[in-house]
Design goal:
Blueprint: H1 2-25, H2 29-51, H3 57-67, E1 72-76, E2 79-82, H4 83-100, E3 108-112, H5 117-128, E4 132-135, H6 142-152, E5 156-159, H7 171-176, E6 180-183, E7 193-195, H8 197-202, E8 221-227, E9 235-240, H9 241-248, H10 250-253, E10 261-264, H11 271-284, E11 287-290, H12 299-305, E12 310-314, H13 315-322, E13 337-341, H14 345-355, E14 359-364, E15 373-374, E16 384-385, H15 388-393, E17 396-399, E18 401-402, E19 407-408, E20 424-430, H16 444-449, E21 451-453, E22 461-471, E23 476-482, E24 486-489, E25 492-495, H17 496-503, E26 509-517, E27 526-533, H18 541-551, E28 560-564, H19 578-583, E29 594-598, E30 603-606, H20 609-616
Parallel strand pairs: 1-11, 3-4, 3-5, 4-8, 5-6, 6-7, 10-11, 10-12, 12-13, 13-14, 27-28
Antiparallel strand pairs: 1-2, 8-9, 14-15, 16-23, 17-20, 18-19, 20-22, 21-22, 22-23, 24-25, 26-27, 28-29, 29-30
Helix pairs in contact: 3-4, 4-5, 9-11, 13-14
Length: 622
């Protein structure tokens, strides 16, 4: 008996000691363990889809509509739509387009619509016909819009009623290219534009034969989502069924359930709202509250009204919420989790202090990228977490990067150099079966530009994220900066070359160098352009204002202009941005003339010390 007691006591002491050691030396062990189990579980499911019967996100939606037909799938502007109603409406869209729009399986169809239920119904209807759908950014202007059609090969456009007027200038060009335009309206006064709404109402809601949407490969393209990059004009990122399925698991991996109500105020033409938001809602069998456009003043009232438990965000969204006047109702809500990216540590802390300890699940990944990080621990300031097992699944590396030369640092053999923990480096991810890169539609050259070959040895291939990251001693990964020709402002990627091309259309501008500058209290970087004026010409702030207003979306318009006598270049004739970014937009420390985009004056006006102070203090709204 005494021996038995001794053994039990020793066993308990051993277990307790192991527990203490684990808490002290491996504090995140169990959270990592269960998170990896979920990742592996979903990965096994994807392998089954690859090798046996392929199940797509659209198949999952049809399954859910059959399993829970009367459950609310969508809430929009106070109206509810069940899984059955969206299923039947999308069937009507599919039948109407197939009968009247000459849409065939395998076609690519462009979709230009604001956030509304019919965006989803048109998307689903086209998917049921076996079509690939290209989501068009509702902010893009004529020149970029025409480029989008050329890159993805779409020959039919479905446009929302509220956006039809934005096409007036390019309708002749679309018709010249034999692109059929269908408007979600009953009657249209534009010549050559077809009415779709009445045909949808007349169509049958009977199910569409599943063989039309079936695919032989999980790696076949199902969507094209346009992303800004180093080439300037929008690039059509190829979204496969595999990528859609991976994105749809986001809420589930972070603990979402069918009982959740998900609030999506982000634009559906971006992957966050469509792939993670709508796809994730389908995967859970949950409910999505879709907002036409984000409103900081309405956000928490909506959350309380619809009993929201999960919301999607970008960093700027949370900052806007923190800038709202404080109320006694700030912590009166049922929100338990936020899923998104770009949340600054200071805003994160303020958000928690103001609205309660909501679990913020930061994600990292680009629309076209082959790597995703997830901060399942919730550590403030981290975009993700890694460990030995995660690195077995995703072969990523951080390499030394020369900011001044704007290129990776190479050793004597011409290979990249890995950095030590805690240092900042360029994030690269090896391309392989577990992390494929599907590139961009319409141009092999654009795809090739995102690849780095012979990185650590001859023959290896890596995806270049263009992001500078750091990994600390506890394996938490944080985002530091973007490199190359893209920066982020107002939650959107801004391609500097696209902005430069628009500015270069003006007859008084000889050379343009566009970059982003930091503004205290603002997420991302605001646009700034260094200009060289042609000899015998003068800077025209009024003309420049009219140019950017006509051709650039709000987030891409340079807020600041810097006039230079000559442009500094590298030995390989690349424009230098590093020194320009570093010097910022302070008129007291810049000898070059500076100008500011003033919407009240409808002109670029001289940037004075008082204007600078009002911007940096937050008094002037940007």
């Amino acid at each position: 008996m005494l021996l038995w007691v001794t053994w039990v006591t020793a066993a308990f002491a051993g277990i307790f000691s192991a527990h203490v050691v684990q808490r002290l030396c491996f504090p995140y062990f169990w959270k990592d363990f269960f998170f990896l189990l979920k990742l592996i579980r979903y990965g096994v499911r994807l392998e089954i889809y690859k090798k046996k019967k392929i199940v797509t996100v659209m198949d999952r939606f049809v399954e859910q509509a059959q399993r829970i037909p009367d459950k609310t799938f969508l809430i929009f502007e106070g109206c509810t739509y069940t899984y059955r109603e969206i299923e039947e409406r999308s069937n009507r869209v599919a039948r109407a387009l197939r009968r009247h729009g000459a849409v065939m399986r395998g076609d690519t169809v462009a979709l230009l619509m604001s956030n509304e239920p019919d965006f989803i119904c048109v998307w689903f209807g086209l998917s049921k016909l076996g079509c690939a759908v290209a989501f068009l950014n509702t902010n893009i202007k004529s020149r970029s819009l025409l480029h989008c059609f050329n890159s993805c090969g779409a020959k039919l456009l479905v446009v929302g009623a509220d956006l039809l007027g934005t096409l007036e200038d390019v309708l002749p060009n679309l018709q010249e290219d034999n692109i059929s335009v269908w408007a979600m309206k009953q009657g249209v006064s534009y010549p050559g534009v077809h009415c779709l709404l009445d045909k949808i109402e007349q169509a049958s809601c009977e199910p569409i034969p599943p063989e039309l949407r079936s695919t032989k490969s999980i790696k076949a393209a199902t969507l094209y989502i346009f992303t800004s990059g180093t080439t300037g004009l929008p690039k059509a990122a190829v979204i496969t069924h595999l990528q859609s399925l991976k994105a749809s698991s986001g809420f589930w991996i972070h603990g979402g359930t069918a009982k959740d109500v998900i609030y999506t105020p982000l634009p559906l033409y971006h992957s966050a709202a469509s792939l993670i938001g709508i796809g994730g809602t389908i995967e859970l069998g949950a409910t999505c509250v879709l907002k036409k456009k984000f409103s900081a003043s309405q956000f928490w009232n909506d959350c309380r009204k619809y009993n929201v438990t999960i919301f999607q965000y970008i960093g700027e969204l949370c900052r806007y919420l923190c800038n709202q006047p404080k109320t006694e109702q700030d912590k009166n809500h049922k929100v338990q989790m936020g899923v998104g990216n770009g949340l600054r540590p200071d805003v994160w802390r303020e958000f928690h202090s103001r609205f309660g300890e909501i679990r913020m699940c930061e994600l990292y990944g680009s629309t076209e990228g082959n790597l995703c990080f997830m901060n399942h621990i919730g550590k403030i300031g981290a975009v993700g977490r890694s460990n030995f097992f995660y690195k077995l699944l995703f072969k990523y590396d951080l390499v030394k990067y020369d900011m001044a030369k704007d290129e990776p640092v190479k050793d004597q053999q011409g290979f990249c150099q890995r950095i030590d923990k805690g240092e900042m480096g360029l994030l690269l991810c090896k391309i392989g079966s577990q992390s494929p890169f599907f590139g961009y539609a319409g141009s092999k050259q654009l795809t090739e530009k995102k690849l780095m070959r012979d990185v650590f040895k001859k023959g290896d291939i890596y995806f270049n994220t263009g992001d500078l990251m750091a990994e600390d001693q506890d394996n938490f990964i944080s985002f530091k900066d973007r490199v190359g020709d893209t920066f982020r402002w107002k939650g959107e990627n801004v391609a500097t070359t696209e902005v430069a091309e628009i500015l270069g259309l003006l007859d008084f501008i000889q050379e343009v160098n566009v970059y982003g500058v930091e503004i205290p209290g603002h997420e991302g970087r605001a646009g700034m352009a260094a200009l060289v004026i042609k000899p015998e010409c003068a800077f025209d702030g009024k003309k420049l204002f009219e140019n950017v207003m006509a051709y650039l979306p709000g987030y891409a318009r340079p807020l600041f202009i810097r006039i230079q006598e000559s442009m500094e270049m590298t030995g390989t004739l690349k424009q230098l941005k590093f020194c320009l970014v570093k010097s910022g937009f302070n008129p007291s420390t810049n000898s070059d003339p500076l100008y500011f985009l003033d919407y009240t004056e409808n002109c670029y006006i001289p940037l004075t010390d008082s204007i600078y102070d009002s911007i940096t203090s937050g008094q002037r709204k940007l």
